[in-house]
Amino acid sequence: MFRAMIVDKAEDGIVTAGVQEIAENRLPEAEVLVDVAWSTLNYKDGLCLTGKGGLVRTYPHVPGIDFAGVVAESADERYRPGDKVVLTGWRVGEAWWGGYSQRARVKADWLVPLPEGLDLRQTMAVGTAGFTAMLAVMDLEAHGLKPENGPVLVTGAAGGVGSIATAVLARLGYEVAAVTGRPETEGYLKELGAARIVPREELAEPPAKPLDRETWAGCVDAVGGNMLARVLTQMKYRCSVAAVGLAGGAAAPFTVVPFLLRGVNLLGVDSVMRPYEDRVAAWGRIARDLDMEKLEAMAQPAKLADLPELGRAILKGGVRGRVVVDVN
Ligand code: NDP
């Protein structure tokens, strides 16, 4: 028996979440059994914990879209008992029982070995949010972003994706402009390396015209909606926006004019189905390009039992930085 966060849906549609003791034979069938050490809280976890967004189709369910732990049993030759592993994506925690559990059984293809230079806890302080922020930075670089091109905007900056993007970009020598709706996080964001703060209200309304002043050499956008539309009108010639999230809405009221007249690129960033090689590369870059003291400054601890409340909070934009969950 072991402990896991179980989300269930009653006949009247009400979704509840609570820690339960469960038997190992209830885990799904797959090659690798992992003793989970750490998990974390991402925006999607908020949706799964509260039954929102239609992500979880089958109940009862164990959420947790990422985890880090030690292999207990493996029927795949790539992993042996005692190996330290990390999992993000592959719809684990949505369509498969996830990391809010002391044990998880998953496909070997979904795992990556613990990246050199990081410990298990640090990987979950980064989590899917931070891993995706790194993928976004790498995609921007692949499209020509360099520090000398000009300032880079990070939206939803005090959240998980935004905090890691801010810290990584600052460490790489970029001038980071951090958009936040929480003025009280200014000191925090400047500690992470933001050169200046852009109040959310400045970018909250739909664009009034197809092109605005050329301002940003790049953008990591965790917000979507009106903010993404506004940012597109302010991009410099042939510069790129990495669209990561939808914390401010999925529908964005933009025209194609920035693409046609300024050669602006809108890059989609998916972390869930990302191939193994990209995953290993991104974790390697995190170990190299993220200041571990800054990672600690953005991480707060939590236990399994704290998750229902934290899940509601993250959906309201009420969590700062990253939450690291000790599942044991
Ligand atoms: P967080 O809640 O930690 O961060 C989101 C931030 O967005 C908030 O902290 C807040 O920042 C800002 N925000 C929230 N609501 C609004 C709003 N209505 N208007 C404008 N800004 C808002 O979530 P995560 O960092 O974990 O995830 C961010 C987004 O990225 C989510 O949509 C998530 O689903 C997506 N994501 C996508 C992935 C992918 O593979 N593409 C992987 C991981 C995440 P502030 O207070 O500073 O304004």
Structural description of this entry:
By secondary structure, this protein is of the alpha/beta class. 29% of the residues lie in helices and 27% in strands. The chain has two domains: 2-114 and 299-326, Medium-chain alcohol dehydrogenases, catalytic domain (Quinone Oxidoreductase, Chain A, domain 1), CATH 3.90.180; 127-268, Rossmann fold (3-Layer(aba) Sandwich), CATH 3.40.50. It has helices at residues 43-50, 120-142, 160-171, 186-192, 225-233, 257-262, 276-289, 292-298, 307-315; strands spanning 2-9, 15-22, 32-40, 66-74, 84-88, 103-106, 111-113, 152-154, 176-180, 196-199, 216-221, 235-243, 265-268, 299-303, 322-326. The strands form three sheets. Strands 3, 4, 5, 6, 7, 14 and 15 form a seven-stranded mixed β-sheet that branches. The longest helix is centred in the middle third of the chain and has 23 residues, at 120-142. The protein binds NADPH dihydro-nicotinamide-adenine-dinucleotide phosphate (NDP).
List keywords for this structure.
Rossmann fold, Quinone Oxidoreductase, Chain A, domain 1, single chain, seven-stranded mixed β-sheet, binds NADPH dihydro-nicotinamide-adenine-dinucleotide phosphate, 9 helices, 328 residues
